[in-house]
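Lay summary. Proteins are chains of building blocks that fold into shapes, and those shapes determine what they do. In this project we predict the shape from the chain. Here is one chain we studied, written as its sequence of building blocks.
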Amino acid sequence: MIVDKLEEICLKILEKIGLKVLADWYRKHQEGMRYLVFGALSTIVNIMSYAILSKIILGGLEESLKVNVSEILAFIITIIFAYITNKLYVFKSKQTGLKNLLKEITSFTGCRILTEFISICMMNLAVIFSINDVFMKIVANIVVIVLNFIFSKIFIFKNKKQEIK
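And here is the predicted shape, written in a compact code that computers can read:
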């Protein structure tokens, strides 16, 4: 896969510049490190989607409506990106069969909806307290990334390690 090859190129560069210890540490903690990398990319997708929607596409709407509509649409875009990257590159889920796949997607989406609700509450607090919405979006994403990793490890992609036993 292209992600594996790109990752290995970066790790070889680290080794060449004298940071073999860092490259080895990354390899040892690959799942967590990939989660951080793709979590950061998901955050970028989310923030950019939100900013484009709220500042350009929906800029003429009333503030609270603009924030909520932009937040929901950015969430939908981000959840699609996050599910694909988490399934294929982070946790390398091998779920097969419609029932198992639907359970995985449902669990992933359910947990993301919970953390999205937390994010929406934080964004509404930004409106209520006149806090810059893009700043609050960044803070909310930090909270969401941490919670999503915990939920992914505990509830969604846990079956990978259980199948090995």
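What the prediction tells us: The two ends are 27 Å apart (CA to CA).
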